[in-house]
Amino acid sequence: MNKFVLTFIVMISAASLIIAILILPYLSRTFFLLNNKSNFISRGPFVKGPSIALIRPTFTGAAYHKSFYKFYFIYVSLPHVRKNVTTDLNLLSSKVTNQTTKSSSNYTFNYLPGHLKKILPNSNIHVLTDADADYGSIFFKNGTNKYDVVILGHQEYETQREYDNLKRFVANGGTMILLDGNVFYAQVKYNSKTHTITLVKGHGWAFNGKSAWRSVGERWPNETLQWVGSNYLCYSCNVTFGNNPFNYKHHEEQYVPPCCSTGDRILWNYKASITKKDSKPEKILIATYERNYKKGKVIALGIYSDDLMTNKKFINFLDSLLLRYTKV
Predict the structure, then answer these.
(1) Does the structure show a pLDDT above 60 at 26?
(2) Which of 136, 173, 298 is nearest to 224 (CA)?
(3) Whole-prediction pTM
(4) d(CA 172, CA 22)
């Protein structure tokens, strides 16, 4: 083999080596990027979204299902004195299911999970129940919050443990959004084996398992006022709203007593008035507000939002709150 041929072979070998090392990887990567639409570069940088838990008011749904309110109706005329009732006590227990009804924020929980995913596409949405919150499923095993935000509906009936867990969730630094009024009004106990709730105290009654008697309306009024910032108003009152862009009709609302409004940041004042029998209208503070409690905060709509889930103006207002208070 002459010198010229040998030199040519060496040059060809060197060129092939350069192609193998430098050019082929580039061509392979380009082919992959053009033909693989699921690669991370085509999606842009990953942005962690909020972790949100919606808690279905399943205990409230059970209380309204052919049980508690039958008992209330039967004994509505009983004087407000300690007179023990020992009949119809089976009506003070009820089976719990995961279904929601008109009395337990049905419109909200049918609409909101999918809607949240649209307006917060990077969010992680979880739908829990009162039984989950009672069990402590809103926390990790080390006691820290599992979610950034919890959203509640008509949580009228609560166990003591669920009530304490939600309070602790906020104290830990979480955000709790209360969509409906008439929350934390009565205490029940929950039997996880039989999946039943039984009234303990509130809604005008107390029950020890053997007899029932007249008792308090709201179960934890002072404690709720301290950390939530409002109390339940009433159902049968005559309430009007002077600042009402949603055409909301009185249903069940939270009100902020004059003593305690300094701790709340008012986001929307509905300029409500309440008229009692044979008296002039009296101004009362029903508002959408923000309240800080320890490391976290409570956002209360103040009204019964489930009535407005098909109202476009209200949904725009709700979206603005959700986008603002679900940031991480």
Answers:
(1) no
(2) 298
(3) 0.84
(4) 54
| Region 126-140 average pLDDT | 98
CB distance 207 to 200 below 8 Å: yes
Residue 25 has a CB neighbour count (10 Å cut-off) of 10
- The Cβ of residue 77 has, within 10 Å, a number of other Cβ atoms equal to 6
Residue 82, pLDDT score: 65
CA 246 – CA 314 distance, rounded (Å): 6
pLDDT digits (tens, 9 = 90+) for 147-161: 999 999 999 999 999
Q: Tens digit of pLDDT for each residue in 193-224? A: 999 999 999 999 999 999 999 999 999 999 99
DSSP letter (8 states) at residue 243:
S
Whether the predicted pLDDT of 23 surpasses 60? no
Mean pLDDT of 18-46: 38
Pull the structure tokens for residue 274: 């309440």
CA 223, 282, 80: angle at the middle one, nearest 5?
A: 55
* Residue with the two structure tokens 């009672």: 134
- Cα–Cα distance, 268 to 253 (Å, whole number): 14
* Nearest alpha-carbon partner for 200 in 89, 104, 92: 92
Kind plus residue range of the DSSP H or E element containing 297? strand 296-300
Using DSSP bridges, classify how beta strands 272-275 and 282-284 pair: parallel, antiparallel or unpaired: antiparallel
- Give the CA dihedral 259, 261, 264, 270, nearest 10 degrees: 150
Cβ neighbour number for residue 65 with a 10 Å cutoff: 18
